[in-house]
Design a protein that fits this description.
Oligomer: heterodimer
Number of domains of chain A: 1
CATH class of the largest domain in chain B: Alpha Beta
Helix content of chain A: over 70%
Mean pLDDT of chain A: 87
Radius of gyration of chain A: 21 Å
Distance between the termini of chain B: 75 Å
Order of helices and strands of chain B: HHEHEHEHEEHEHEHEHEHHEHHHEEEE
CATH topology of chain A: ABC transporter involved in vitamin B12 uptake, BtuC
Shape of chain A: globular
Mean pLDDT of chain B: 87
Strand content of chain A: under 5%
Largest sheet of chain B: 7 strands, mixed
Helix content of chain B: 40-55%
Number of helices of chain B: 14
CATH architecture of chain A: Orthogonal Bundle
Radius of gyration of chain B: 23 Å
Number of helices of chain A: 11
CATH class of chain A: Mainly Alpha
Chain lengths: ~325, ~400
């Protein structure tokens, strides 16, 4: 082997230009930070929809990543590409359909099964639902991944930093979703009822709140958020049956790290995971990106199970 | 409580039913019917035909690919029969459906062997080929698979042949093309961290070391959706050419991000980039000027390939693609071997297959080597306006 190539594998570490290249290194860091923040918002949204259902029913919806995928398929596969509808009309229809699907999930799984002896019945129900949705998407839309042309595509270049427009949309839409949700929970009667149900189902029922109906509404809202996530990630992830499996898990981690069952916690947790895992690429080989987020999850479970903003351990 | 339990039971029952429905429905497709039809006619045929078998995935996850395999092999059989058959007899094709499942592949192989086929074409997946490997070896039936894992070469199975180039050939040709034809002084590699990707990475790394060219590799996992880190590192390393060795979904995302992040390097990709499903996921400008190594380019200028494409389209009214081209070649090599052997004795046919030399088929030139690999060359295509355009055929020394 010629001596000049002995270190072929680490060529960029002992590059003679390395001193002149602090600027590119900074560019890498900023670039990673940008995509980290955008992914962080996605994890945060996943954490929020997870938390909504958890607070309302005391159950985890293990089919939520499939609901994200379903939202993307309904929007991209059926409405835009299948029926050729206008994108923004499709967004509204997809959200309505997802809301109905969510309410159906609540009335067929959560409500009948939540009062069984063990929560395992309802949890198994959602796992099974996930499998059904997975196979159904594969059978209806086929196993070949595809994308929606010209949907939130393009990028902005600011001082050598390329920002995908989809990332900007993700940040803006996430903030809008969180603000709307917060307003809804604070100022509307239904929202207040949802918070009552989250605090104490028995007391809420005694106060005249229809708990089952309330769970339907909450799960419907959570499913609409799933659909929004699905539509937002199409330009980044493309549409494929496994598109949401990893963000589903990371959203769960976001909840744990931020403080499970507490919405600001999910947002903080999501951003932390997104940024930390992306910046880790600068020092570690990129294949370990997922390892970093899950090590973070395990560390929090061991050291601070209540999460950063959690009230008690 | 009783009512809740009853509801739970009914729900569980519904789920079980819908799951059963999911599994059951693909078998209703027309492919299954045609498979059964041809298998049925096989059992009824007399002794003056030469039977060859085909194991194809007519149902299951990739039914369209299986259908193309069947059409291509049938085309080859028909062409021989039109020319008067083989050894004075008509050739008859028996098709079995393995549903891309390993256990079904074993059942299909056993069935075909018991029906007295001279040789078997298929199955397509490497895993399925490995599953039937012992069955065909002990029965002594020459079998031609299109599975591309390098492991098949290490089996030392005298009866298992490979009718396409192995993954190792693809990766070496890609690296060789980058260095020799595109003049790269520093080669980068984005590889999937699975068997396919790491295999490609090893081969390309070994080639670059031998050629004295700097080599930088960055891995990723299947289902990863963001490659900012890898691409930025590669940009910082200032590579002239970059190879991408991964599967379709990841490849499409690489295309978008390489363009967005402005990595200026020549790109040579694993075969996926020449396939319509990947091209449709990319914008034409994202992959403009990319190179792809592949078995089959529809714009090939090689005569055998052009004739095959014309005949296939004339007969089935659909364009020829990778699966039809690969298995047409497999069928032709098997039929040629029967002709050369002058007999339907399976061992003699095997020996003739092992002695195949310079046979022109749509995927290249077939010359069997000591590990029963028949194809040692692949084609390079360049993406021009979202169309793979044939550049040249690269043969390994």
């Amino acid at each position: 082997m010629p001596p000049s190539h002995r270190f072929g594998g680490e060529a960029y570490n002992d590059d003679p230009h390395v001193e002149k290249e602090c600027k590119p290194m900074l560019a890498i860091l900023i670039q990673l930070l940008v995509s980290g923040i955008a992914l962080g918002f996605i994890y945060a949204l996943v954490g929020i929809e997870y938390t909504l259902v958890w607070n309302s029913t005391g159950l985890l919806n293990f089919s939520h990543d499939k609901l994200i995928t379903l939202g993307a398929y309904i929007f991209g596969g059926t409405l835009v590409l299948g029926l050729g509808l206008n994108s923004w009309l499709s967004v509204i229809i997809a959200m309505i359909v997802s809301g109905i699907v969510g309410a159906l999930v609540a009335s067929t799984i959560f409500n009948p099964l939540r009062n069984m002896r063990s929560t395992i019945f309802a949890v198994m129900g959602t796992i099974m639902l996930g499998r059904i949705l997975y196979e159904a998407t594969r059978l209806i839309w086929g196993p070949i991944p595809f994308t929606v042309p010209n949907w939130l595509t393009g990028n902005v270049i600011i001082h050598d930093i390329s920002i995908t427009k989809a990332n900007l949309y993700i940040c803006v839409v996430s903030i809008v979703v969180v603000a709307c949700l917060q307003t809804f929970l604070t100022f509307t009667k239904t929202g207040k009822a949802m918070r009552c149900v989250a605090q104490n189902k028995k007391a809420a029922a005694l106060m005249g709140i229809n708990v089952s109906q309330n769970i339907c509404i909450t799960t419907g809202i959570s499913s609409i958020i799933c659909c929004i996530i699905g539509m937002l990630i199409i330009p980044l992830f493309n549409i494929d049956v496994n598109m949401a499996s990893m963000i589903g898990l990371k959203g769960f981690s976001a909840g744990v790290i931020g403080g499970f069952g507490y919405m600001p916690g999910a947002i903080l947790g999501g951003l932390i995971i997104g940024i930390v895992e992306n910046l880790s690429v600068a020092v570690l080989p990129a294949v370990y990106k997922d390892v970093v987020s899950f090590v973070l999850l395990i560390l929090f479970l061991l050291v601070r199970p209540g999460g950063i903003l959690g009230k008690k351990a | 409580m009783k009512k809740t339990r009853l509801t739970a039971f009914v729900l569980a029952f519904c789920m079980a039913l819908s799951l059963a429905g999911c599994n059951g429905s693909p078998t209703d497709s027309s492919g299954a019917a045609s498979a059964q039809a041809s298998a049925g006619s096989g059992a009824a045929s007399s002794g003056d035909t030469i039977k060859i078998g085909l194991i194809a995935m007519l149902t299951g996850a990739n039914p369209l690919n299986g259908l193309r395999m069947q059409q291509a092999v049938q085309l080859a059989v028909d062409e021989y029969n039109d020319k008067g058959g083989l050894l004075g007899k008509k050739v008859q094709l028996l098709t079995e459906d393995d549903q891309t499942l390993q256990d079904m592949a074993v059942t299909c192989a056993n069935k075909l062997i018991s029906e007295g086929v001279v040789g078997i074409v298929g199955p397509h997946r490497s895993t399925n080929a490995m599953a039937i490997e012992q069955v065909v070896a002990s029965a002594g039936v020459p079998t031609l698979t299109g599975g591309t894992t390098p492991k098949i070469s290490q089996l030392n199975n005298k009866f298992l042949f490979r009718c396409r180039a192995s993954d190792a050939v693809f990766a070496e040709v890609a690296a060789q093309y980058a260095v020799e034809k595109l003049g790269a002084k520093k080669v980068g590699m984005f590889y999937n961290n699975d068997e396919f990707g790491t295999g490609g990475n090893e081969v390309a790394k070994a080639y670059c070391q031998k050629a004295g060219v700097e080599y930088v590799a960055e891995g990723h996992n299947t289902n990863d959706k963001d490659f900012t880190g890898q691409i930025m590192k590669m940009k910082n390393a200032k590579v002239d050419a970059v190879l991408i060795w991964t599967h379709d979904p990841e490849l499409a995302i690489h295309a978008r991000q390489i363009k967005d992040l402005g990595l200026n390097a020549k790109v040579i990709s694993s075969p996926g980039i020449t396939m319509p499903q990947v091209i449709e996921m990319c914008k034409p400008e994202q992959i403009e000027g990319w190179y792809g190594v592949t078995d089959f380019v529809s714009t090939s200028t090689v005569d055998v390939t052009k004739t095959f494409i014309k005949n296939f389209e004339a007969k089935y009214k659909v364009p020829a693609e990778l699966y039809s081209a690969s298995y047409y070649g497999a069928a032709v090599s098997l039929l040629e071997a029967i002709k050369t052997a002058g007999s339907t004795d399976r061992t003699k046919v095997r020996d003739a297959l092992a002695a195949t030399k310079d046979l022109q088929v749509p995927v290249g030139t077939m010359t069997t080597d000591s590990t029963n690999d028949m194809v040692h060359e692949v084609h390079v295509a360049k993406m021009v306006n979202a169309e793979p355009v044939y550049q040249e055929t690269v043969k390994l020394q």
